[in-house]
Design brief:
heterodimer; A: alpha/beta; TIM Barrel; eight-stranded mixed beta sheet; five-stranded parallel beta sheet; 14 helices; B: alpha/beta; Rossmann fold; 2 domains; four-stranded parallel beta sheet; 13 helices; 9 strands; globular
C-alpha cells in the first residue's frame, strides 16, 4: 500500500515541524518518496496531519466485561477519535497479571482491533496490592507499563519495590494516586456542591497524599513514575516541584479535568461520576497551567465504558468512569488550542511525542522518515454536535453528549492503512 | 395558589415567594383537624404512593394521614433496601407505579438524589421524603411553619441547629428555608460532624453549644446516630452528652422564651434531656401535628402531570 497525502499542513512536534507539504507512506512506514505511484492519494487541503494520537490510559474491558466494551468496539471508537494507539489498563477479568492474558489481548487486537493496543500489566498480582506480579514475564509478553489502575498500591513498601524492580525493564510504574481511607465511600469531590447534594465527598488530599508519597518513593528508588489522571492543583504543584528536583516523574491529565467542574454533578447524573472526581474551577485552571508549563506531559482519556443500566441509577450505586475516545481531540482543540492554553503543536505533543517517549513506543508519535505510518488527519472546520447515536463505543456514558464541537478527526491511518474516514455531508 | 411545579425535591429549589405560599396554605388545613370530619375532597380520585426504601414510620404515617385527609387513595410500599441492589432499578419501579396511574410518589431513600432521578423520568409528582444526606423538604417546611406559628415571623429569627449537621438532611432543608426567609441560622456540633463549606450557605458555625445557645430564639436539636461513633466521628456517647446534650442547665443560659424543637425520633438522655424535651419551651409534638397540615398543603400545591419542571428548577 502506497499512500500520499497531498498539500497538507503537517504539525509534528517531534521534529518541531509546522509546514505545508506531502506525506508519503509505503509498507506501513513514513517514507520521503514512494517507490512508484500511490495507490491512494488524499487531498490535504484545509486539513492538518499530525502523528497518530496515543492514548496512554484506557479501558477496553476485554476480557471479562464485554457488555461494556470489546477490543473490537473500543478500537473503532478510538479510530473515530483520531487515536491510533491505546494503552489499556489491566483491571480486566482476569486481570493482566499473567502472560496468557497479555497474549490474548494482543491476539484479539491483531484479529479484531483497528488501532494499536498496548497492554499495561498489573503491579501486583490481581492488583490486590500484596505481591508483585511477574513483571519480567509480562514485559516479555508485551506490556509497556505497570499499574494497579482503579486501585492504588496502598502498601508503601510494595510501591517502593515496584519502582525499584521495574528499573531493569525501563517500565514506568503508573500511579493511581488515591488514599483509599481518605476517599472511603466518597462519590464526588468534597466541596460546597457535595455538601449541598448530600453526597459523600472525596477530598483532593486523597489524591495528593499519594502523589506526594509516590514522588518520594521515586526519589528514593530512581524508578520511573507516571502519575495517572491528575485532577487537582495540589497534584500539579507536587509534580512540578518533583520535576524541578530532577525526580523521574511524568504525569497525565484527562480532558474532563480541564473542561468540567463538579458543578455539573448538580443533577445527580452518574455520567458526571468519575475517579478522581471532577474538581473545582481553581483545579481546572491549575491543570491548564500545568499543561502549559510542561508539568503535565500527556493528555489521556481514561476511557471507562459502563452500560446504561449501570449508570442510570442512584449516584452512589453507579460505577465511576466515562468514555473518552471520541471526544478527546475535539476537547483538546476547543478547550486548549482555541482558548490559547497550548499551541496546536504543544497540544499534539502531549498526545503523540511525549507518550511515545514515556512508554518507549519505538517508531510512534512522530512523522519522521522511517517511523511507523500512524497518522491522524484533523479537519479543523468540522463542526458537529456530539450525540448519543453517533457514539461507536459500546457504552454511551459521556457527560459531553449534546455538546457542540468544532474540529475533529477526518481520517485515521494506522500502520499505513486508513482505518477511519469521517462521513460528512 | 400553587407552587407551579410538579415535584418537591428540596427546598434549595424554592424561592421566598414559594415558601410564603406554603406557609399561607397550611392554616386552613390545620383548622380542619379540630372538626369532627377531618377530611377535604381536594384529592378525590387521586392516587398517592409512599415508596419507602428506608424505614420511617413517622414520616410515612404523616404523609398517609395527610393524603387521606385530602380524600386521596393511598398505597404504601416498603422496599427492603437490599432488594435495590439485586432487583429492579429505581426507575423501573417508578415507571411501574406510573403505569398504575400513581399521581404522587412520595419517596424516602437512603441515597441522595434518588427523588431527582424519579422526577426526571416520570410525570407523576415526586415528593422527597428524605434522601440520604441531601434534603428532607417537608420536614424543613414543617419546622419553618412551627416557628412561624409560634414566633409570628421568620425574618430576623435566630435559629440554632445542634448536633450531626454532616449527616442531616433536616439541617440542610432547614438552612435553605430559614435563610431564604431572612432568619439567621447557626449550627453547633463537633467539627467532625460539620460538613466542610457549610458556612458558604450563610450560617455561623459554633463548636461550643453554651456559647451558641445564648442568642438563639429557636433551638432545633438533631438526632445523633449512635453508629457514627463507630466511624470515629466522636470518641464516645458519654463525651457527646457532656458537650452537646441540651440540658436544663444549658437551657437556663438561653432566652426564657426559646423554642425547643426536634424532628424526632428523640434519643432521650443523649442529644436532649427528658426535662428539656418535656419542658414548656418544647414544641416537639406540635411539630408532628403541623407535619400533617404542611404535607396536605404540599400535596395541594403541587401539580402532578405538569410539564416537567425539573431541568429548569436546577
Amino acid at each position: 500500500m502506497r499512500l500520499q497525502i497531498k498539500n497538507i499542513r503537517i504539525v509534528d512536534p517531534s521534529q518541531k515541524k509546522d509546514s505545508v507539504g506531502d506525506i508519503f507512506a509505503e509498507n506501513g512506514r513514513i517514507v520521503s518518496k514512494l517507490s512508484s505511484s500511490a495507490d491512494k492519494v488524499i487531498d490535504g487541503k484545509n486539513k492538518i496531519a499530525v502523528p497518530g494520537l496515543i492514548d496512554v490510559h484506557s479501558h477496553l474491558r476485554e476480557p471479562g466485561q464485554e457488555g461494556k466494551e470489546t477490543i473490537k468496539t473500543g478500537t473503532r471508537a478510538a479510530a473515530k477519535g483520531g487515536i491510533t494507539s491505546v494503552l489499556c489498563m489491566p483491571n480486566t477479568k482476569p486481570a493482566i497479571d499473567n502472560a496468557p492474558t497479555v497474549e490474548f489481548i494482543l491476539l484479539k487486537a491483531q484479529k479484531e482491533g483497528i488501532v494499536n493496543v498496548f497492554p499495561v500489566g498489573c503491579v501486583t498480582k490481581s492488583s490486590a496490592g500484596e505481591e508483585l506480579s511477574e513483571i519480567g514475564v509480562l514485559k516479555k509478553a508485551g506490556i509497556v507499563a505497570v499499574s494497579d489502575d482503579g486501585s492504588p498500591v496502598s502498601n508503601s513498601q510494595i510501591m517502593r519495590r515496584a519502582l525499584e524492580y521495574t528499573k531493569m525493564f525501563k517500565l514506568p510504574v503508573i500511579s493511581h494516586s488515591e488514599d483509599k481511607e481518605l476517599s472511603k465511600s466518597g462519590v464526588m469531590n468534597e466541596s460546597k456542591n457535595s455538601m449541598i447534594l448530600g453526597l459523600r465527598g472525596i477530598p483532593k488530599q486523597a489524591e495528593e497524599v499519594m502523589v506526594a508519597r509516590d514522588i518520594m518513593l521515586a526519589e528514593l528508588t530512581g524508578g520511573y513514575l507516571h502519575i495517572a489522571h491528575v485532577s487537582t492543583a495540589g497534584s500539579v504543584e507536587l509534580v512540578r516541584q518533583a520535576k524541578k528536583k530532577g525526580i523521574k516523574v511524568t504525569a497525565e491529565t484527562c480532558p474532563h479535568y480541564f473542561t468540567l467542574t463538579d458543578d455539573v454533578v448538580r443533577v445527580y447524573d452518574a455520567n458526571t461520576k468519575m475517579n478522581p472526581p471532577l474538581r473545582e474551577i481553581k483545579d481546572v485552571e491549575a491543570v491548564k497551567v500545568g499543561l502549559a508549563d510542561g508539568t503535565i506531559d500527556c493528555i489521556a482519556t481514561d476511557h471507562a465504558p459502563h452500560t446504561a443500566e449501570e449508570k442510570n441509577k442512584e449516584f452512589d450505586l453507579a460505577p465511576f468512569g466515562i468514555i473518552g475516545f471520541e471526544t478527546l481531540l475535539s476537547l483538546v482543540l476547543n478547550e486548549l488550542v482555541d482558548k490559547k492554553v497550548l499551541s496546536l503543536s504543544g497540544a499534539i505533543e502531549k498526545m503523540t511525542h511525549n507518550p511515545a517517549l514515556i512508554f518507549n513506543l519505538e517508531g510512534r508519535g512522530t512523522l519522521k522518515e522511517g517511523a511507523i505510518a500512524d497518522i491522524t488527519i484533523i479537519d479543523p472546520k468540522y463542526s458537529y454536535e456530539f450525540t448519543k447515536e453517533s457514539i461507536l463505543s459500546k457504552s454511551k456514558n459521556s457527560p459531553f453528549i449534546g455538546r457542540k464541537f468544532q474540529g475533529g478527526a477526518a481520517i485515521t491511518i494506522v500502520n499505513g492503512k486508513i482505518v477511519y474516514t469521517a462521513i460528512r455531508d | 395558589m400553587s407552587l407551579n411545579r410538579k415535584d418537591l425535591l428540596g427546598l434549595e429549589h424554592l424561592d421566598k415567594k414559594d415558601l410564603q405560599t406554603v406557609l399561607d396554605s397550611v392554616k386552613p388545613f390545620k383548622s380542619l383537624f379540630t372538626r369532627s370530619v377531618k377530611k377535604a375532597p381536594t384529592l378525590i380520585g387521586k392516587t398517592v404512593v409512599t415508596l419507602f426504601y428506608e424505614p420511617s414510620t413517622r414520616t410515612r404515617t404523616s404523609f398517609e394521614i395527610a393524603a387521606k385527609r385530602l380524600s386521596a387513595d393511598v398505597v404504601n410500599i416498603a422496599v427492603n433496601a437490599s432488594s435495590v441492589v439485586k432487583g429492579e432499578s429505581l426507575i423501573d419501579t417508578g415507571k411501574t407505579l406510573e403505569a398504575m396511574k400513581a399521581d404522587y410518589i412520595i419517596i424516602r431513600h437512603s441515597l441522595a438524589g434518588a427523588p431527582d432521578i424519579l422526577a426526571r423520568n416520570l410525570n407523576a409528582s415526586i415528593i422527597n421524603a428524605g434522601d440520604g444526606f441531601h434534603e428532607h423538604p417537608t420536614q424543613g417546611l414543617l419546622d419553618l411553619y412551627t416557628m412561624y406559628e409560634k414566633k409570628k415571623k421568620i425574618e430576623g429569627l435566630k435559629v440554632l441547629l445542634v448536633g450531626d449537621i454532616l449527616h442531616s438532611r433536616v439541617a440542610k432543608s432547614n438552612i435553605w428555608a430559614l435563610t431564604k426567609m431572612g432568619a439567621q441560622v447557626a449550627v453547633a456540633g463537633p467539627p467532625t460532624l460539620m460538613p466542610s463549606k457549610i458556612e458558604e450557605l450563610g450560617v455561623k458555625v459554633y463548636y461550643n453549644l453554651d456559647e451558641a445557645i445564648k442568642e438563639a430564639d429557636v433551638v432545633n436539636i438533631l438526632r445523633i446516630q449512635l453508629e457514627r461513633q463507630q466511624e470515629n466521628l466522636f470518641p464516645s456517647v458519654h463525651e457527646y452528652v457532656e458537650l452537646y446534650q441540651l440540658t436544663k442547665d444549658r437551657l437556663a443560659k438561653a432566652k426564657p422564651n426559646v423554642l425547643i424543637m426536634h424532628p424526632g425520633p428523640m434519643n432521650r438522655g443523649i442529644e436532649i434531656s427528658s426535662e428539656v424535651a418535656d419542658s414548656p419551651n418544647a414544641v416537639i409534638n406540635e411539630q408532628v401535628t403541623n407535619g400533617i397540615a404542611v404535607r396536605m398543603a404540599v400535596l395541594y400545591l403541587l401539580k402532578p402531570n405538569k410539564a416537567r419542571k425539573y431541568a429548569s428548577s436546577n
